Amino acid sequence: MGYNMVMDKFFYKHTIYNKCKILPDNPGVYIMKNSKGEIIYIGKAKNLKNRVSSYFIKNSGQSSKVKKMVENVDHFEYIITESEFEALVLECSLIKKYQPKYNILLKDDKGYSYVKIENEKWPKIKYVKQKSDDEATYIGPYINSGLVKKLTNEANKIFKLPTCNRNLGKKYQRPCLNYYINICCAPCIHAVSYEEYCNLISKAVFFLKKGTRKTVEQLEKEMIKASNEMNFELAAKIRDKIRALEVIKSRQKVVSVQKEDQDVIALVQDNEKVSCEVLRFKSGDLYETQNFIFEAQDSIISARTEFLKQYYNLKCDIPKIIMLDGEIENHELIEKFLSDKKGEAVKVSLGSKKEELQFIEMCKDNAYENLLRESKSKDNYDICLEDLKNLLSLDYIPRYIEAYDVSNLYGSDNVGGMVVFKDGKPFKAMYRKFKISIFNSQDDYAAISEILRRRLKHFVSNQVNNDQAFKNLPDLILIDGGITHTLAAKKVIEEIGIDVPIFGMVKDRKHRTKAITTDGKEIEIKSNRRVFSFITSIQDEVHRFTLNYHKSLRSKRASNSSLTQIKDVGKVRSKILLKTFGSIEKISRASVEEMSRIKGITLRCAKEVYKHFHS
Questions:
Q1: Could you tell me the pTM of the whole model?
Q2: pLDDT digits over 38-59, tens only?
Q3: Domain that holds residue 498
Q4: Among residues 567, 555, 597, which one has the least CA distance to residue 580?
Q5: Which of 217, 247, 462, 563 is the most buried (most CB within 10 A)?
Q6: Tens of pLDDT along 216-273?
């Protein structure tokens, strides 16, 4: 690539505008510098003269960021290229190298994480933040360090690989605790052969590279083969690994019909910031999400264009399909740039199918939610609450909001939850839990009525003097449910004689926030993204809080009752076993020797527990 480099500094007798007049009409890259000679902005142009001149024309409708950048420009340099595509490639390279202040800046290599497979006879798999100058094998780099760390831990746990600091080149007399709780195969005492251990390492690496779906498919083939060969013990071990992987797979809430690797990108911009969300799909599964916040650009189109260039200029794993929520500048050039970088065709599209548009909308919702979270100023919450007031035709801004939900399992363990949002933010000190007196009944309407009646009667009679949550009335009450739930709550309000506006939060068939309801009508909220995100966060929070309370009660009751049914195990020993092992499943896998070593558990008791689970 041949360049004609021109490096001119403006002297006092020349103005920048006059120098712009003699710029060539060729494509190229321009480099803005301040009075100290520092590079503050790098851009590319199809026509250098027109593009650079536009910065210094008064009243050209520039954003505040561009105006500020221009104020700091002391002089500029430019590089002529043979084509606009060459200018794009050079621009990306120079931005990555110099990281100018006014360009969109994303994470560089310092923020990457890796999976390390040690170069040892008995290697371990570790999560590391940087590559070392050794002979180890590295998988990566990855930007999402939290995800990498989590997957590495899960791979070690599923395939029972060691995570301790022991030197596996030596043979120890006793294994560590991980062996006894069945999360390590104990190569330190040679409980597995070297060949078996290498096979486990290979499977773990395959899981990290290919994901859950491919690993499950491979293990299922091995399980069938072992079963056909009458090797049922091996088949059972493989089955346990598949079950562990299925647990991970079940956490994957979002799955795409499209099996090609693809990214979905959406941006939201306000007057000060841009929030960009990236959803990354591999073999149909959503395996990574990322969010970037940067300064507002001239337009959402230019912001989307600049982000796309810089994001994939830092990455080595570019997918075949990139779906965007809107147009970009130089579409064909960027598609060619990404294809050349990947080494095969990359398609950048807006999405047209129903599923694609749903993912783009979900991506945009997340971008907006992160923008709200980033901007924590009181003004933004005030705007949202003002919008909510107008939408619901309230008399005043709802600064103190209470939301209610109920949960049960086929009528058992009926509970309710109350969450509070103050000035638009969760006020967790005022969250309250309710045990509902309706037993063996799945009447959600009666349950909502009961918890609301109890809460409001506390206020009226002033019975709970020491509970600040019940001393005052909220500005707004929200019920997680439809029209019938809302009418049941309104009936309670009328009975007690209190005037508080009540609305229901309606979900669609996929349990996603849909609308607000009152008096048999639904109020559409999706058109106001700020209010929609706020109501969604309230609905998700009250559902999470209530469901967790229900799960904790059910789990506690089930665990204690199942253990106390065993001979020689009372409430005390039941608590000791659960505290030591953490769950019924782990107790069921424990040996008599492991249990009898615990203080408070006799040998006779340990034998009875073992017999109960293995008879």
A1: 0.45
A2: 999 999 999 998 889 888 876 5
A3: 382-553
A4: 597
A5: 563
A6: 777 788 888 878 878 777 777 778 777 766 655 544 444 444 567 889 999 988 777 8
Q: How far apart are CA 438 and CA 416, in angstroms?
A: 11
Contact 609, 587 (CB under 8 A): yes
Same domain, 323 and 419: no
Instruction: Give the residue with greater pLDDT, 377 vs 216.
Output: 216
Number of domains in the chain: 5
Residue 267 near residue 275 (C-beta atoms within 8 A): yes
- Residue listed under structure tokens 């009944």: 441
Within 251-353, where are the H helices? 300-314, 331-342
Q: Is the peptide bond before 141 cis (omega within 30 degrees of 0)?
A: yes
Query: Is residue 569 a contact partner of residue 608, using CB atoms and an 8 Å limit?
Result: yes
Under 8 Å CB-to-CB from 78, ≥6 apart: which residues?
6, 23, 28, 29, 30, 31, 48, 52
Residue 3 one-letter amino acid? Y
Residues 267 and 273: beta-carbon distance below 8 Å: no
Q: SS3 of 477, please?
A: strand
Does some domain include residue 514? yes
- Amino acid of residue 337: F
What are the residues facing 417 on neighbouring strands? 405, 433
Which CATH number is 587's domain given?
1.10.150.20
Q: What is the H or E stretch that residue 32 is in?
A: strand 28-33
With a CB cutoff of 8 Å and minimum separation 6, the contacts of 46 are 27, 84, 87
Task: Supply the CATH number for residue 60's domain.
Answer: 3.40.1440.10
Q: How far is CA 450 from the centre of its chain?
A: 36
Condensed to tens digits (0 to 9), the pLDDT of residues 4-34 reads 444 444 343 356 777 888 888 999 999 999 8
Question: Which residue type occupies 289?
Answer: T
Residue 237: partners with Cβ closer than 8 Å, 6 or more residues away: none
